[in-house]
Design brief:
alpha/beta, Rossmann fold, eight-stranded mixed sheet, Dienelactone_hydrolase-like, 9 helices, single chain
Amino acid sequence: MKKLFLLTLTLLPALGFTQSKMSCCQVSSASSTEEFAQFSTDREFVQSHLDPIPFEYKSEIGRDVMIPAADGKEAHIYEFKAAKPTNNYIFVIHEWYGLNNYIKQESEKLYHALGNVNVIALDLYDKQVATNRDEASKYMQSVTEERAHSIINAAIKYAGTKAKIVTIGWCFGGGWSMQTSLLAGPQAAGCIMYYGMPEKDEAKLKTLKADVLGIFAEKDKWITPQVVKEFEENMQKAGKKLTVKSYNADHAFANPSNPLYDKESTADAYEISLAFLKARLK
């Protein structure tokens, strides 16, 4: 099994490389998710994330659900069911801290903002929730592509063959938002990725059925403007629709616990994301 050196963030110090010496775009042997996972070995990347502030959250309508997965293990999701039967689904993929209360709250916020829709927050950490950045680094490195794919496919099966699925994720979850849309095949209706590692394999991109909204940060030292430019070029070659919105901000600017949190850019990106989602969940 391949260790999923998740995408959000540069190259192995053990090999003597640092982000300044080699860009993440120069790695050709690793998958995009593995590439992002390698950021967890970059101390600058780890230190750029503050430990999340403890936050109590309790929803009257959200519920934890365990669903069967093809690898024989159960998968954990947090679900908000639509008030009326609908085939519209939003899959939310957490950032590197895991499926914590912040992600659950954000999922409920989307649920209320978009009207009658099912929202499923996927848990790629199997109920492990990081309370600090060192735990987050460890959990992110422990993810394998095989297990992540099994969890995602279980959620797709749970939603049903008639489900129209849009995906959204941040950082680690930004890259996995794209991978989830790829796995959803013809059921994929839209993909939003916040400063996550894009898929670079043109052959894979050609199989993508969903339009993509990429939200990036111009000051990002990991998902750099060069990475974004390459993504735009690859999507164009693959004949896919990509909308890019870049802000004069730093990586993880939409995370309130980030010392470089940008409230204005976050609000603007949220409105753009809502418009994108609404247009694809008609």
